Amino acid sequence: MKYKDLSIFSGNPAFSSMLHVGHPNIGNRQRFLELMNDMLDRRWFSNDGPYVKEFEKKIAEYLGVKHCIAMCNGTIALEIVIRALELKGEVIVPSFTFIATAHALQWQEITPVFCDIDPGTHHIDPKMVEKMITPRTTGILGVHIWGRPCDVEALSDLAQKHKLKLLFDAAHAFGCSYNGRMIGNFGSAEVFSFHATKFFNTMEGGAVVTNDDDLARKMRLMKNFGFAGYDNVIYIGTNGKMNEASAAMGLTNIESIEEIITINQRNYECYRKHLTGIPGINLLRYAGREKHNYQYITIEIDEAEAGLSRDGLQQVLWAENILARRYFYPGCHGMEPYKSFFPHAGMLLPETESKASSTLCLPTGTAVGTNEISVICEIIKLIIDNADLIRERIRNQE
Ligand SMILES: *Cc1c(COP(=O)(O)O)cnc(C)c1O
Fold first, then answer.
1. Does residue 97 line the site of ligand 1, with CB under 6 A?
2. How many CB atoms lie within 10 A of CB 288?
3. What spacing in Å lies between the alpha carbon of 74 and ligand 1's midpoint?
4. What is Dmax (Cα atoms) for the chain?
5. What's the gap in Å between 22 CA and the centre of ligand 1?
6. Ligand 1 centroid to 98 CA: how many Å?
7. What is the best residue among 193, 325, 327 to mutate for testing ligand 1's pocket, by most ligand atoms within 8 Å of CB?
8. Ligand 1 center from residue 350 Cα (angstroms)
9. Is pLDDT above 80 for 11?
10. 166 CB contacts (<8 Å, ≥6 apart)?
């Protein structure tokens, strides 16, 4: 597909350089370089260095949680906590999530059982979860999609009632709260990703946070090959360690976290103002009473009302150098190996299939300004106003 030909400005994109979703948020550059210099002088790059220790302490304080175990990425963090919790058999997860949530289970030969979502919240629906429980079920893995918390209470009740472990993939939800308490304090443990594209990044990185002392001790061993001291391996483990440069990035960014949230919230309010009233374009809202990181500007496109499909809108936006992104399309159940394992999974996942084909994320973060956002929204309005014409152009290209 030649996106360029779809530009509504006759081949001249509205933006001369590309606007991305998930461009990294960076705190004070000078501060980061100072930390890097000290690290080089110290020649201590990994293995529980001073930055990683300080980073873990700061994160635990920020979240009000007892333990933070920093790791090399969110996926390994998920794998380690899944193992530490001794999950096996089947675990109930949403299909409307990043593929790593499902892979972290399947990697250990645990079957991810995909559960449909509530169309209003995009989270696994506790009523559906209950229907998916079998004698082989050992746990529920909820995902705080877009940083908006899952129905933590209903899931906790369900886990208790059926004696299941409850774990949260909080990759999107750093800096967010549920009933006034920071995400990180719920279930047996919660997992963050600090990947470059996430709200808060350490370039690559992640962490498991928990209030459970035994679980924390076990995970500390597991992420360091099971070493309990020099030459003393007491457990099976892997290499899940965070390095010092990543921790330095985290220490830099945590100092600027409130400023980053302020910019993201400003961007969200700007989108909200300008997108209101465009037919068929519905912005996902953040509830005012909770803390949010506002990292995802997610719109749902109602094709009948907009006169254009989500994919049609995306193609024209790309032609204007606005790199809006589909997230979680076509859902984990539509990707291998799950597609082959469960070819009919989609029949139980109508809401997942619907959201996977109607949602789009728009550029935001500290690299995007409100002037740019106004232009993006004007272009979306122009596109929807001219939906008939655009549909015809797309058809002619196919
Ligand atoms: C990013 C992400 C992960 C994986 O984290 P990495 O740090 O990239 O390994 C897992 N789950 C969800 C929902 C994510 O968005």
1. yes
2. 6
3. 5
4. 70
5. 13
6. 6
7. 193
8. 24
9. no
10. 139, 140, 142, 155, 156, 159, 186, 187, 188
Per-residue pLDDT band for 1 (boundaries 50, 70, 90) equals very low
Rounded Cα distance between 226 and 217, Å, is: 11
pLDDT in tens, 187-202: 999 999 999 999 999 9
- Whole-number pLDDT of residue 238: 98
Ligand 1 pocket member 22 (CB < 6 A): no
CA of 100 to the centre of ligand 1 (A): 6
Average pLDDT over residues 13-28: 88
pTM for this model (two decimals): 0.96
Residue 212 lies in a domain: yes
Say whether both 311 and 183 belong to one domain: no
For residue 231, the SS3 value is coil
Query: Is residue 151's pLDDT more than 70?
Result: yes
296 and 195 within one domain: no
Q: How many residues does the chain have?
A: 398
Tell me which of 255, 283, 303 is where a domain ends. 255
Which residue from 191, 195, 332 has its CB within 8 A of the most atoms of ligand 1, so it is best to mutate? 195
Q: Which residues pair with 182 in a beta bridge?
A: 177
What's the gap in Å between 75 CA and the centre of ligand 1? Answer: 6
Q: Is 98 in the pocket of ligand 1 (CB under 6 A)?
A: yes
Whether pLDDT at 101 is above 90: yes
Do 207 and 234 lie in a common domain? yes
Q: What is the pLDDT of residues 361-395, one digit of tens each?
A: 999 999 899 999 999 999 999 999 999 999 998 88
Total domains in the fold of the chain: 2
| Residue matched to tokens 């919660």 | 190
Q: Which residues contact 287 (CB under 8 A, 6 or more apart)?
A: 148
Q: List, for residues 210-255, the tens digit of each pLDDT value.
A: 999 999 999 999 999 999 999 999 999 999 999 999 999 999 999 9
CATH code, domain carrying 79: 3.40.640.10
d(CA 166, CA 258): 30
Cα distances (Å, whole numbers) of residue 224 to 43, 193, 212: 20, 19, 19
> Does the beta carbon of 195 lie inside 6 Å of ligand 1?
yes
Q: CB-side exposure of 191: number of CA atoms within 13 Å?
A: 28
317 Cβ inside 6 Å of ligand 1: no
Structure tokens at 223: 């992420």
